[in-house]
Design a protein that fits this description.
- This protein has helices at about 15-30, 65-70, 95-125, 145-165, 185-190, 200-210; strands spanning about 10, 30-35, 50-55, 75-80, 130-135, 170-180, 225.
- The chain is an alpha/beta fold.
- The chain has one domain (about 10-225): Rossmann fold.
- α1 (about 15-30) packs across α6.
- The longest helix is centred in the middle third of the chain and has 29 residues, at about 95-125.
């Protein structure tokens, strides 16, 4: 059993399908989750010994906004999970510069800024920590019709491995999970003819993320961990 008792963990994208599942696992195991949100909203009620706080008005693509958010996290930061991001299809010839930059900002820039500020807080605490980014299967295995998205997620994978080497001696482990198509209501609606049984459930992916960000992960760093299921 994972133990997050007394641990503070940031989860970006914590109100989305995967992020909410990650928050649930950590709170049920005693952790305190802090969730940045652009629009804000009430903190969800989760049965468990831990707690969750949603902080509104945070733009994860804005440097100052991210700095202010991490500076305001109460207590010693142990973990930071970066599940916020976006997806867009588009053949290369129909992908404009703005489309490409939007994917880079939504996925790579947000991960970069959150990694940077998380490392600052962890260094200040002096007790090490854990960072988990969310990349994608297409960062390693090519798929057509999503050049901008794939490039942005490949950047997340590169950030993960480079940072993992940079901070290893400080006891900060940095990893990434690489989901394929996850079993969510939105994905089922978009692909009604697919075999949903092959898709990993968000709860299953969340368990992998929770291990990587937990103190029980004592040796895994710099990993690009596939969470494909049978898809």
């Amino acid at each position: 059993m994972l133990d997050f008792d007394g641990r503070v963990v940031v989860v970006t994208g914590g109100t989305g399908a995967l992020g909410a599942a990650i928050v649930k696992v950590i709170v049920e195991r005693g952790g305190t989750c802090v969730v940045p949100s652009h629009r804000g909203g009430d903190s969800p009620t989760i049965a468990g010994p831990g707690t969750v706080e949603v902080v509104g008005g945070v733009d994860l693509s804005d440097e100052r906004s991210v700095e202010a958010f991490y500076a305001g996290v109460k207590g010693q930061l142990w973990g930071s999970v970066h599940a916020a991001g976006g997806f867009a299809m588009g053949n290369l010839e129909k992908t404009g510069k703005g489309d490409f930059l939007k994917m880079m900002e939504t996925n790579a820039v947000t991960a970069f800024l959150c990694c940077r500020e998380a490392v600052k807080r962890m260094r200040a605490g002096g007790g090490g920590g854990r960072i988990v980014n969310v990349s994608s299967k297409v960062a390693l295995q090519a798929a057509g019709g999503m050049v901008a998205y794939a490039a942005s997620k490949a950047a997340v994978a590169s950030i993960t491995q480079s940072l993992a080497e940079e901070v290893a001696q400080e006891g900060i482990w940095v990893n990434a999970v690489l989901p394929s198509i996850m079993d969510t209501p939105a994905n089922r609606a978009a692909m009604p003819g697919a075999d949903f049984t092959k898709w990993p459930k968000v709860e299953e992916v969340a368990e992998t993320v929770a291990f990587l960000v937990s103190p029980e992960n004592r040796v895994t760093r710099g990993g690009l961990v596939p969470v494909y299921g049978r898809s």
